[in-house]
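Researcher: I'm preparing a figure for a lab meeting and need a structural model of a single chain. I don't have an experimental structure, so a prediction will have to do for now. The sequence is pasted below. Please return the structure as tokens so I can convert it later.
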Amino acid sequence: MQVHRFISGSFRSTSLFLLSFTPPSPESGSASIEHLSTVPANGPHQYIAQRGDRVYTTSWALPPSLSCWSVEGENVSLVGEVPITATSSYISIPPPYTHIYSMGGPTGEIHAVDPQMGAFGEKVQEVLFVKEEELEGTDKTRKALTKQRYGSHAIEISVDGLAFVPVLGTNSIEMYTLSHPSSTFSSSQRHLTHIHSHPSPRPSDGPRHLLVHPNGKRLYVVTEHTNYLDVYSIHPTSSPPSLTHLNSVSIIPTDLRPNPHDFRGDTLALHPPTPSNPSPSHIFATTRGARSGVRGWMGVWELDGEGDLIKPEEGDSVQPSSPSPVETSKDPDIGNVHRYETPTSGGKANAISLLLKRSSLSSSSHPTSLEFDTQPPQNSRRHAQMPLVPPPFEANPPVEANTTTDAGEEQDGLWILLTDDCGGKDEADEEREGCGAGVRVLDWTRGEGVRGVVAEWPSHGHEDMRGGSHAVWLD
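Model: Understood. Here is the structure written out token by token.
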């Protein structure tokens, strides 16, 4: 029986939530989500990153910090925490997996990966988005993530050693060079050097999240204030490296564009590689409603092998694949878009994580750990509160979530995790109409799009989670 674990944070709880998803089968006929454990943590958690059996989280708690967790079966244990200067909203762990990058508000930080524990090691660099003399008096809480003068929100790194940071406050994409790693573990190899500030195409776009195509040639950016997905060409060999804006597509339907401030551009994800499509075949982007009662949207566009949006051929006609809330349309200048209206506004969430469907899986897809030091670092502030000793860290696990394996036949579809923050109560302490579940699983199939919600958790009124923030598939 297929069972896929995932872990979720919440904006309304300090805990993490370990859950499992069982897809529908001929025997059961329906899918389900099971709650495995609630993990006391230092939340609320805005963002979760995963590498092998290690999970890395940001937190809104003060003083600001980043945490590393070990996930083994149904056990989640703290490996270590590190203090940071300002609240972070994003974590990235790119190949060769020797360093961890985080960004948020007025600062960003690079930490080396502890090679024994897989946790945050030496702090290598702090990146500033304000003048150094202004940092002491600058807001460093979660409110700084969207400040007008600063507000860094994410970081991603290309195969050519270029780093990209969207900054809401300056309405720009900041570009950095990153030295190529050497064969030895050296922190000096991973410093960011600022080279270029590229303005967003429209005033007050508010670039929020971004992704780089695996080939390093295309950059995709979601704008929070105008609800666009922007596509850029990356020029790594120009002097200095630069960007060219190629096109923009609307995440919300055309008839809603007169009121873009009813929505907040949110997250994006690339279709995981498969044996038949080693290059991402689609890109997914979401918005959330700016207030309760305004539902969010997810847009899906098809990509060619270079990472460009595929334009429809002359005379093509595209019909809706199913009734509302699904909309499929054709933009003659850009390409086909499949839109899905989410069940609620999403609150502060409406974040997504993608998992390839499988017809069968081996009995265990958990990575086998190598023998490393298993004692947690003593500089963790919450070390004494966690009774479980984390299992050994494996630097290069053989199985990655969201990638293909030999255990299972490829299917042409995805399970999409969608988080929902409106599952609790609003500031007036009144139940939000139509809310309840903190996490949902959507069924997406190539050619048909989203076929609906197949499972959700928790039931309406559950007080442990009270709405999800960000969730990631573990296996």
